[in-house]
Each structure stands twice: as structure tokens, then as C-alpha cells.
Specification:
832 residues, alpha+beta, five-stranded mixed β-sheet, five-stranded antiparallel β-sheet, 26 helices, 32 strands, disordered N terminus
Length: 832
């Protein structure tokens, strides 16, 4: 440790007055008595001192080291250098080494407090005599005879300022002990770090920053003298409250330095004429008000709910002392650049409806990001202006709406429900199990029916009634969903009511980000944390976080849910505004029924981020503010996108693991069944039915055909189209059959579902035999399926007479009448 090169002072001379001989004699008597008293009880005094100092000193032989001074702790971002906050209670102190205090400041302190410090021992007997004479002449205490070592004992050990002989004896005994154990430089360093310098500031290092915003090594003569002058009475000579008194005292110190010959008269004159040199914003905090994560880690350490921070102390009082007075360097997990990106995203322009420009409050934002690999909290934005508002939003519970649905998917897949499961989307869905006035669930769009949907479609489109039916089909219903959510990272405070799948139970943004992290991390949940490491003022590691990770859901389930949540962000999904170009994203939107909360929680392969938007102090609807319905996909997702674009910039693009191969099954035969029954049968088999009404002679509602055909193997959830009769005969266009052979004509009509009536007409030209000569209805006319078309077909004269030779065929039968019936009957049989 460097020594302070302090020049010797001029010899002390007593003032020549008639009373000097008397005073000298008196002082000699007093001093002799003092020394006698000091020596006689020395053993008892030292014994008392050693006993009293147990709390402040550590034994080494016959003496003890001073315990570490109470000093402020500093909180840093994850880089270990970006300062977030300083923590202290009664002692705002930053300890500095003696070599880091400017030489002129050290000389100023010695000049005014103990100019012979490096020459005497624990006690300075000439100073005691000089002080006694000065005090007697003034009839008051104007000088002290205490050395810096004695002052250190008084401040750091005895904590007793009473002017009693008993206290002086204790002080002298302990000072003598310290002088044997420590060097002069070490004692001066301890003293400079112990002293109080007003405004809650302890130590020269802290004071130099507080008053001048410079390190102690850069203090100049005027500044150093000002601090040295404050030692006698920090309140009286406070430069902020009493600048004139502070200036006078500073000049006394400068004059004393000049008197001792430690500075030149010219330097003294210039310094005395200078201003105090205080910083423009003296008295204000050097740091901006700390981000919310500082408040969060303080609460975590002091509460110590799971014993993680036992190294800070067994009781909250002990942990408070260690945290606020231990001079700790606390490195958090917060990424300062990411926090800045979150702030920028939250502060992007907000739309205010023109009809209501002065809405009484505006929505606020919380953004939390956790590292998927270990649970480290990288961003923790608790409002757009936390420094001013101090609102606890990042950890405040709010209803998540549909952002809770992924936990229902996990619970379902753990019970082996196929992802291709199919449910009706008809809204509202009525069930006595739903505890509201109508005992029903509705989709966000209100009443309607989009048919049957599989879980992939229902997730992408966030269909409430489908998830309600899915949850109610599970063993344990809402309880199963709550258990899945809790083991994935939601606190153990959920009630497994049926409506839990729609996000009626309150959760915080931190919990949502932590739970989605489980999906992104192959089903491994890592407990979220904000304190990475803590180092003491001596450089010893007090605490280092060890990730707490556990496989809580099967990897295949995590991969499957992630694949389904990617559909939410793809084109057509509710969260498409969150998509990041060229980078896989999975996530889920969430909106509460009254539009008071809007969410988007999503993740890439690297990080998971939850964004919440709503009013800080109420659950009022945000519709009046925006002038329209507010959804997670329209409000929260764009903020998520804006933030994550900056966060992910420069990070490698990574794909999610593929989901397990889809399950297949055989399509049941539903032809001939009524449509409603057929759709339920297909849905029960995990296929998605789609009804297509077609004209048919079958009874209305009857399935007349299906695609794919019955027995076909297909992926569960696949679409099966069923053609259902509308009860109306289909229209058929009559083909042109004139000139065709009658056999061809009949086959053509049969294929079109039309009947045939054949009427023979006697012809003389053999080329017209068996040829259709006429038809009715005519070609091109539209008729109902099953309509009979009359074909007039040529036949050669077989000896019959007149009209008696006409023959009529209908529906495959032959009608014969008149002469020559036997011949015509044979011919008709041949033509059939």
C-alpha cells in the first residue's frame, strides 16, 4: 500500500500571555493524571475493549482485524459492467484503496485532522497538550487531541462519541491494539472509507462521486479540502445545504495546508478563490432509476422462499444486511441491449380513437424474455415508464385468455388424445358443466358454425368451443390442465375449473414466458432466475446460480405442440403479425372476454417472450381507447414482432425439432347413414367430416357417397367429404341419341340415370333398322334424374298389317299388338 508523503509541520509555539505559566502547569498536572489513569486501568481497559470489539474485529494473536465496513452493493447487467443500481440502507459507501484517493485529498485530511499521523503512535501526547491549552483558553472544546487511529476506533468499533474518561480509556486501548496490527497506510485507508460525509454518503470514494461525479483519484485541491473540512461536522459544512459555511471551512483546510508548507501560498490563494466545484446535478442519483429486475431480485433474495439464497444469511434481517451493506457485486441475467429493445417496442406509437383523445388512462405493456436453454431472465420490462410509475406488471397476475390453450393441448396429448381429434365448431356450445348464466361457451366471433375442426385447425384459429369440448373430454378435465400448466412453469395457484382452458385463471407474464420455455426446450423446464453470480468486496464468489432443469413433459409432446403453435403464426393464424421473416416462430395469442387483456406469448428455438397489454390499475375494456375490438393478435403480436426482430438479429436461424409422425386410421363406411350420424361417426374415428349437399333421389339427409372411400387408410384428422342428399332429384341434360343404334342409346341413358321407352316404327330402308329415329325429350333439355326418354326406333316390315305392326318397349319390356305379333315378339327379344 502506498505511503502518504506528508511534510513536517512547523514547531508548535505557545502564545505568550501572563496566564501561560499557570496554564502550562495546569496542563502538565492534567496530562500527568490522564497518563496515570490511562496506564493504571490499561489491562482492564484492553480486556473490555477486546470483549466489546468482538462484533467488529477478528482475532489475530492478541488483536483483531476490523470487520468489513458496511458498504453499498452494486447490481450489474449480464455483461458484468453495465451498472443497473446501487443498494444500501444506512451506509451508502463505496470502498476505495488508499492509492485510489488523490494525494492532495489525503494531505487535506491529514492537515486538518492529524498532521503528525505518520510520526506518532496510537496517541499523540503533544496534540493532547495543545488541545487542552486551546480549549482552556477558549473555555470550550475548539480542538481535539484524538489521532486518526482513535477516531477510527470511535467510529468503527466503539460507536460511542461521549466525552467521558471511561470511553477515552477504551478508545486508547483499542487504538494501541490497532497500531500494533495495522500499518499507518492501512489505518488511513480504513478511516477514509469509514467517515461520514453528509447526505447519507460514507467514505471519500462515495463522496467524490456524489458531490463531484468524479472518482476519488481525480479530486483536486479545492474538492479534497472541501471533503476534509466536512469531517468535523458534515451537516454544518454540507456544501449542498450550506455552501457559504462549507466554503469557509474548505478555506480553513487550505490555509492549514499552506501553513504546514504542504502547498504553496499561490496554490492556496487560487484554491480559496475558486468555487466549490460541485457537479451541476449534485444530490441527484447518478444512475437512472433501476429497472424492475432490481426490485425483483431484491425480493427474491430477501424472501428466499426455496432456500436458494441461504448464503446471504439464515434470517431476513441477516440477508438484508448482507445485501445492502456487504459491498457485493451482483451480476444479473438481464441483457441491457435487449431491455432497450423492449423499451423501444413498448414505446412505439399507440392509436387513440379520435372520438376519445383524452381517455383517462392508456394501456401499458409488460415484456419478459427467458433463455430457453437455462431459464435465465434476459428482459424484464414492467411498463413503458417504470422509472416514473414503479408499477409491478412483469410479475402481476392477469387473465391470459386463449394464450393458456397450449396447456390444454399438453394435458390432452399426455392422455393419448390424437392431435387429429375432431370437434364441432358450432357456437355457442352448451353444457351444464360450464359455470355461467347460459352454461355455454362461445367463439370470439359469436354465434356460428364452421363445421367440424381438428385440433390443428382449432389451435391456429383459436376456436373456443373446440377447446372447451377437448378439455371436458379429458380425465380430470380442468384439473388435468392445471397440473400440466403448473409443472411447465406456472405457479401452484391454479384452480382446475372448466373455464381454465380459456384462460380465466390469472398468471403473470414471467410465468407465461417460463412455461412456454418448456415447450421450446424439448419438454425440459428450467426454473427462471435473475441472479447469475454474486461476488464480495474481496473478490470471493458468494453465490453462483446453477440451472435447475427437469424433464416435465415428453419431448414428442413438446415438439407436437410447437408444430401446432407454428400454425398460429403462419398465414391465416391469429398471430400472423408476430411472424419473423425467415425464422421459425411458435406462439399463441390471448384475449380476455372483455378486451381488458391482450397477450402474445411465443418463442424461437433460443428464447421465449411474453407480451401483455392492458390497463395497469383496472380490468376495463381497451375498446374505447382503440376504437375497435382489441385482440392479442392485433395489439400484442405486433409489439412482440417489433421487439423480437431486434433481439434475434445476428442470432443463428434454428429450426424446431419435427413433430412425431402423424397417426393413421381407416375411414369408416357412412354411405346410407343420415348426415348428422355420419359426421359424429367420422369425428369419433378422428376424421374431419365435411358435408356436401347434392341432388339425389335418396331421402333428404342421406349420405349418398364419401371421399375417400370407406376402408381407406388416412392420417387422423384428415378431411372426409360426404355427399348428402338434399331430397331433390338431380337435373340431367338429355343427350342427342338420334342416329345411334338403339343399344348404345339405352346404355347412355342408363348411365345418366334416365329411363327408356322404345317405340318401333316400320321402315323400308334396311339402314334404319334398329336406329333411333326420334327422341323425346329432345337433346339438350334438362330433366330430373329418373325421367324416361322415349326413343323411336326403325324396324323393317315383317308382314304385319298397318298400324297393327307398331311395337312399344318400356323399361326393358316389349308391348306387342295387332297382326304379325309373333314375328314382332321374336324381333323384340332379339333387340333386347
Amino acid at each position: 500500500m502506498a505511503s502518504t508523503d506528508a511534510p513536517r509541520k512547523p514547531p508548535f509555539r505557545l502564545p505568550m500571555t501572563p496566564f501561560v505559566p499557570v496554564l502550562v502547569a495546569l496542563v502538565v498536572v492534567v496530562a500527568s493524571g490522564f497518563f496515570a489513569l490511562l496506564l493504571s486501568p490499561l489491562a482492564a481497559t484492553v480486556s473490555y475493549g477486546v470483549s466489546k470489539v468482538d462484533e467488529r474485529m477478528d482475532f489475530l494473536g492478541d488483536c483483531k482485524k476490523l470487520a468489513a465496513f458496511p458498504q453499498r452493493s452494486t447490481v450489474y447487467a449480464s455483461d458484468g459492467t453495465t451498472e443497473l443500481a446501487t443498494l444500501y440502507l444506512d451506509f451508502n459507501r463505496e470502498v476505495v484503496r488508499l492509492a485510489d484517493v488523490s494525494e492532495v485529498t489525503r494531505k487535506a485530511v491529514l492537515a486538518i485532522e492529524d498532521d503528525r499521523f505518520y510520526e506518532h503512535g496510537a496517541l499523540d501526547f503533544p496534540s493532547l497538550v495543545r488541545a487542552a491549552i486551546a480549549n482552556l483558553l477558549r473555555h470550550e472544546v475548539v480542538q481535539g487531541g484524538s489521532t486518526i487511529t482513535q477516531q477510527l476506533v470511535k467510529l468503527a468499533v466503539l460507536e460511542d462519541t461521549s466525552q467521558t474518561a471511561e470511553r477515552k480509556f477504551k478508545e486508547a486501548a483499542i487504538a494501541n491494539c490497532l497500531e500494533r496490527k495495522y500499518t499507518k497506510d492501512e489505518i488511513l485507508e480504513l478511516y477514509l472509507n469509514e467517515v461520514y460525509l453528509g447526505n447519507g454518503v460514507y467514505g471519500v470514494g462515495t463522496a467524490s462521486d456524489f458531490y463531484f461525479h468524479v472518482p476519488a483519484s481525480k479530486l483536486n485541491l479545492s474538492q479534497g479540502a472541501l471533503l476534509a473540512g466536512m469531517l468535523q461536522a458534515p451537516g454544518t459544512f454540507d456544501p449542498v445545504s450550506h455552501p457559504k459555511a462549507a466554503t469557509r471551512r474548505r478555506n480553513e483546510v487550505i490555509a492549514r495546508m499552506a501553513e504546514l508548507g504542504w502547498i504553496t501560498p499561490l496554490k492556496a490563494s487560487k484554491a480559496e478563490a475558486a468555487g466549490l466545484g460541485l457537479a451541476d446535478d449534485v444530490g441527484t442519483e447518478r444512475l437512472a432509476k433501476p429497472p424492475f429486475i432490481v426490485r425483483y431480485i431484491v425480493g427474491q433474495i430477501l424472501a428466499n422462499a426455496d432456500g436458494e439464497f441461504d448464503v446471504f444469511g439464515r434470517t431476513e434481517r441477516q440477508r438484508t444486511r448482507t445485501l445492502y451493506q456487504g459491498g457485493l457485486s451482483i451480476t444479473t441475467t438481464l441483457d441491457a441491449d435487449w431491455q432497450e429493445a423492449a423499451q423501444a417496442a413498448a414505446n412505439q406509437p399507440w392509436y387513440i380513437h379520435p372520438s376519445n383523445p383524452h381517455y383517462r388512462q392508456s394501456p401499458d405493456v409488460a415484456i419478459v424474455t427467458v433463455d430457453n436453454a437455462n431459464g435465465a431472465i434476459r428482459t424484464m420490462l414492467s411498463g413503458r415508464n417504470y422509472a416514473k410509475d414503479q408499477i409491478r406488471l412483469a410479475t402481476a397476475p392477469r387473465q391470459p385468455g386463449s394464450a393458456f390453450k397450449p396447456f390444454t393441448l399438453v394435458a390432452a396429448f399426455e392422455q393419448d388424445v390424437p392431435p387429429g381429434s375432431v370437434f364441432s365448431s358450432k357456437s355457442p356450445f352448451h353444457t351444464p358443466l360450464w359455470n355461467n348464466d347460459c352454461h355455454c361457451v362461445s367463439n370470439a366471433e359469436g354465434a356460428g358454425d364452421s363445421g367440424y375442426l381438428n385440433l390443428w385447425q382449432a389451435t391456429a384459429e383459436s376456436v373456443n368451443v373446440v377447446f372447451a369440448q377437448l378439455e371436458l373430454s379429458l380425465q380430470g378435465q380442468g384439473t388435468a390442465v392445471a397440473e400440466a400448466a403448473e409443472k411447465m412453469g406456472i405457479g401452484e395457484h391454479l384452480v382446475g375449473v372448466p373455464s381454465i382452458t380459456l384462460g380465466t385463471e390469472e398468471v403473470s407474464p414471467l410465468e407465461m414466458a417460463a412455461a412456454y420455455q418448456t415447450l421450446a426446450n424439448d419438454g425440459v423446464h428450467c426454473a427462471s432466475y435473475a441472479v447469475a453470480r454474486v461476488v464480495t468486496s474481496t473478490g470471493k464468489t458468494l453465490y453462483k446460480h446453477r440451472p435447475d432443469c427437469e424433464q416435465v413433459i415428453k419431448p414428442d409432446i413438446a415438439h407436437l405442440v410447437s408444430a401446432m403453435l407454428r400454425g398460429v403464426v403462419s398465414s391465416g393464424g391469429t398471430g400472423w403479425r408476430a411472424a419473423l421473416p425467415g425464422r421459425p416462430v411458435a406462439g399463441k395469442t390471448g384475449t380476455t372476454q372483455d378486451y381488458s387483456n391482450a397477450w402474445f406469448t411465443g418463442y424461437t428455438e433460443q428464447v421465449s417472450t411474453a407480451v401483455w397489454v392492458g390497463f395497469p390499475y383496472s380490468t376495463d375494456s381497451m375498446e374505447p381507447y382503440f376504437g375497435q375490438s382489441v385482440f392479442g393478435g392485433t395489439v400484442a403480436a405486433p409489439i412482440w414482432h417489433s421487439y423480437m426482430v431486434r433481439v434475434m438479429n445476428g442470432l443463428p436461424v434454428k429450426s424446431f425439432p419435427p413433430p412425431p409422425a402423424p397417426q393413421s386410421g381407416r375411414i369408416p363406411d357412412v354411405v346410407g347413414s343420415q348426415s348428422e350420424h355420419a359426421q359424429k361417426e367420422l369425428a369419433a374415428a378422428h376424421f374431419t367430416p365435411r358435408e356436401k349437399l347434392v341432388p339425389s333421389l335418396e331421402p333428404k339427409g342421406t349420405v349418398v357417397s364419401q371421399t375417400p372411400a370407406a376402408g381407406t387408410s388416412a392420417v387422423l384428422g384428415s378431411l372426409v367429404t360426404i355427399d348428402v342428399s338434399n331430397g331433390k332429384a338431380p337435373k340431367v341434360t338429355v343427350p342427342d341419341l338420334v342416329g345411334h343404334v338403339v343399344g348404345f342409346a339405352k346404355a347412355k341413358l342408363a348411365n345418366l340415370g334416365l329411363g327408356v321407352t322404345v317405340v318401333e316404327k316400320v321402315v323400308t330402308d334396311p339402314n334404319n333398322e334398329d336406329i333411333v329415329l326420334e327422341q323425346s325429350p329432345k337433346a339438350g333439355e334438362k330433366v330430373d334424374e329418373g325421367t324416361k326418354v322415349t326413343l323411336t326406333v326403325g324396324v323393317l316390315d315383317g308382314g304385319g298389317t298397318g298400324g297393327d305392326g307398331d311395337v312399344a318397349f318400356g323399361g326393358g319390356s316389349v308391348v306387342l299388338f295387332g297382326a304379325g305379333a309373333a314375328v314382332l315378339r321374336r324381333r323384340a327379344a332379339r333387340r333386347r
